[in-house]
Amino acid sequence: MPDTNTVPNLTGLYFELFNEIGIINQLSRTSFEARLPDGMVLPHFTVINHLIRVQDGQTPLQLARAFQVPKTSMTHTLAGLEKRGFVDMRSNPDDARSKQVWLTAAGRKFRQEAIASLSPDVAEISDALSVEEVTAAISLLVRLRKRMDSARD
Amino acid sequence: MPDTNTVPNLTGLYFELFNEIGIINQLSRTSFEARLPDGMVLPHFTVINHLIRVQDGQTPLQLARAFQVPKTSMTHTLAGLEKRGFVDMRSNPDDARSKQVWLTAAGRKFRQEAIASLSPDVAEISDALSVEEVTAAISLLVRLRKRMDSARD
DNA sequence: GTTGATTTGTTCGACATCGTACTAAATAGT
DNA sequence: ACTATTTAGTACGATGTCGAACAAATCAAC
Q: Which residue, A30, A131, B31, B89, is most buried by CB atoms nearer than 10 A?
């Protein structure tokens, strides 16, 4: 009986991996967004979070690259954040083509509140994996991500 | 100096994890879709793949649940597959409300070709992780996914 | 300096995703 | 049997995502 149900070895393994990643992404996104107010969506939060972790004043293009999304998508996300008063878009004094994205006090406050409201969800699932396992998973995924990133031309 | 940049311990760890997962999902999706013909999109492939791995003749609702997407999204995905002749939608003889999704020969052929065209991409990144690491990552993510799944209500 | 190429960001159009409201079929309660 | 509830699927509208085309600023080459 020919092996038609199974994908050849290695490729199949990565299919499985990306499939799990896709489903977890789906699940985490859905439960994140359920906690966020009205029209806020995961990328809104993620951008704010990134601006705090890394640094304020990044350009839209830098942000688009950090998240591996097209710059048009980032434009849209930033427009939503600006409309809600969570970021300020100032033009870059060093390069009039580009802009800088700065967090407002409201933006920082929003992040704190979002995190607080999300923590219970994290707590609920945190018994599935040990802290060591989560840490290990992160470093492994970071390695994979960087490899994938450098592979795209 | 107060700790405003760092998210409290555990929650921050999961943020990082989900963040990496999100980016990898982004990257894998983009490179998958680049290989697929015209208007085909990742969910199209994923559904076909699932029908082969598990079994033909699933109902749309079963598929929606398997991928954790709303049933309206699955309706849309299946409509695309049917339009392209990759699946047949027959009405369920046991329950006139529901339908069954059956793969066509063209659907199976499409999957084989898609996998073949994707393999080079997998090969290119496969040196980042050992097979054992990928396997370990999968089992860990499966555990997480199942926990998240059982946690939603 | 002037011209052509590159970079940054936006607008626009196409399409995917998903919540709401609906129809039809099945099931439960009486 | 009859009605109410539940379940499967769809139509529709709102919004997110993203590729193509564009405008403005910068850079490179001469």
A: B31
